[in-house]
Amino acid sequence: MSGLYQISGSALLAQRQRLNLIASNLANADSTSSSTGQPYRARFDVFAAQPLQTNGGTDPTGAEGVRVQGVVTSQAPFKKVYAPGNPNANAQGYVIASNVSLVRQMSDLVSATQTYRANLAMLQQGQQIDRALINSL
Amino acid sequence: MPLLNSLNYYGQALEVGARVANLTAANIANADTPGYKARGLDFKRALDARLQTHDPVRAQYVRGLPVGLDGNNVSLGYEAMQAASNAARMRESLAFLKGDTQSLITALRPQANGQGG
Q1: Of A24, B48, B69, B109, which has fewest CB within 10 angstroms of its CB?
Q2: Distance between CA atoms of B60 and B57, rounded to whole angstroms?
């Protein structure tokens, strides 16, 4: 069952990276400018299935792990907040803030946590069966 | 040779069980991958193929699951059910394998009271 550890392990890594991005998005939800000079844009990662690598090349059984294929930035419009006292405010007193949607981030967080748990449960079940197999010898 | 046959039978059942577990793990791992389609294995057909011929049965797409907007049709509930039933099946095979191994060891002992050997 060593393939199972590779598969669930890759998924735990991918989901953890997704959680990192969500944390970054939430932390910058109220940022008005970033290192690029523009307000912060929400980031999302895109997953892709990855064939399992075994000693003899690609695993023939068709089971695939997962990897983060890339990170895309959200093209949603920026929020406009009226805050005349803000140092980043324009002549009309408006501040351009990040385009992070808190609702979207929270639903993403729930989804990522749920999938992370499911992968962990699968990993633990595989471990239990392996232990039972060793104990039966 | 029936005892040795049964050792082979449960050994093959465990092999197929491990394959099913791998596929379930892959489906759960790809629960958020756009365009991914859940795959499964017909346990009985795969076991028969292993016991009779050496032509392995390929994994098949699971039918009848609702497809999401991103083209993914993995259902965590369905996979949890698959994982649980497959784990139970593997534990059964393990229990029988252990029992038969012990019977074999008993049969190999020279004295009926289990001494010697």
Answers
A1: B69
A2: 9
- A87: its two tokens: 């140092």
Contact A3 B22 (CB under 8 A): yes
DSSP H or E run through B39: strand B39-40
DSSP assigned state of B69: T
**Burial label, A29 (beta-carbon count in 10 A; 0-12, 13-18, 19+):** middle
CA distance linking residue A108 with residue A115, whole number of Å: 11
Out of A7, A114, A129, name the one closest to residue B29 (CB): A7
Contact B58 A62 (CB under 8 A): yes
pTM score: 0.85
- Rounded distance between C-alpha atoms, residue A60 and residue A53, angstroms: 10
Phi, psi of A54 (to 5 degrees): -115, -175
Token pair, residue A40, equals 């912060």
B83: which residues sit within 8 A by CB, 6+ positions away? Answer: A121, A122, A125, B21, B24, B28
Reduced 3-state DSSP string for A35-66: CCCCCCCCEEEEEEEEECEECCEECCCCCEEE
Per-residue pLDDT of chain A (137 residues), as tens digits, is 678 999 999 999 999 999 999 999 999 988 887 666 788 999 999 999 988 877 666 666 778 899 999 999 999 999 888 888 888 888 888 888 899 999 999 999 999 999 999 999 999 999 999 999 888 77
Q: Is A63 exposed, middle or buried (0-12, 13-18, 19+ CB in 10 A)?
A: buried
